[in-house]
Design goal:
By secondary structure, this protein is mostly beta strands. The protein is built from three helices and 14 strands. It has one domain: CheA-289, Domain 4 (OB fold (Dihydrolipoamide Acetyltransferase, E2P), Beta Barrel). It has helices at residues 56-59, 79-87, 149-153, and strands at residues 2-9, 12-17, 21-25, 30-31, 40-46, 49-55, 72-76, 100-104, 106-113, 118-119, 124-125, 128-129, 133-139, 142-147. The longest helix has 9 residues, at 79-87.
Length: 155
Amino acid sequence: MRQYASFYIGESLFGIDVLLVREINRNIDITEVDPSPDFIKGLMNLRGQIVSVTDLGVRLGLSKREMTDSTCCIVLKTNQELERIIEEGLIAEQTSDDFVGLIVDRISDMITVDEAEIEPPPANMNGVDGKYLGGVIKLDGELLATLRIGEILTM
């Protein structure tokens, strides 16, 4: 069984393995940093830790995120925090050595699926390049695209 934290970017539903998630933060105070790539929203202070915040929509080739009341930042675990989980074979994917947050439009549900329910992704789904997609899960009335966070965070 796999669990995914699901969220929306626009009207598209995405998910990342919950084992990669450190926390979901609704209190977003981002300081812009110049010069930086267009997908870097800026920096956020999270209880003394500096978090580099990525606009996931821009990184996936979609439009820039507009900050609203439902906007959230998914803060990922660092590679160091993931070491034990990777050693135990629970997950193979890495994130970053630094603290990284992903801006999303709104959080949805926690999705639990059998690994057999995860289908290979198409080459392009909802305008997102297939290299960023890990798989597709059919839910009631919509598709959830799982993301390959390691690929997304690779510059």
